[in-house]
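sorry to bug you again but im stuck and you know this stuff better than me. theres a chain ive been looking at and ive put its sequence and its fold in token form underneath. id like you to explain what the token line says about the fold, in plain words if possible. anything you notice is useful, everything is just below.
___
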Amino acid sequence: MEKKPKQSTENFIKDIRCRTRRVFSSEQKIMIVMEAQRGEHSVAELCRKHAISQGKIERYHRSMKNVVKLDNYYHPEQLKEAIAEFVEYYNNERYHESLNNVPPADVYYGREEEILKERERIKKASIKKRRQLFLHEKLLNSGTETLSSN
């Protein structure tokens, strides 16, 4: 009978954490970031509440800084206005690749499926129209070739 080497307590705890770690969907991550934006709780409190690292929220702040720091602000109100504009843009206009290129607000309010269906409808209509144009051009070109060969 072979004896297993004894696992340290620290490694045992790490192993349990890895096996029981929650996996969040993109929608859940966006909801947590939006909750952080409201400012009702500190980032640390939210991270403890949802058992996540602060990375998602820090990534959002880095995105905001990269946009907001491009300008000079001569009054605190100007900075507040720029931040508010960025938050509006980030939540309602900016497409997020991890959310099927849908803005977070649309995911949050349950409009994602409707938007994706509309995109699919537009895509099918565009493909159909391109095929029709291609066939039309092909017919025109084949008619021109027949005339020029005579």
Notes: The CA atoms of residues 1 and 7 lie 18 Å apart. The mean pLDDT is 80. The chain has two domains: 23-110, 111-150.
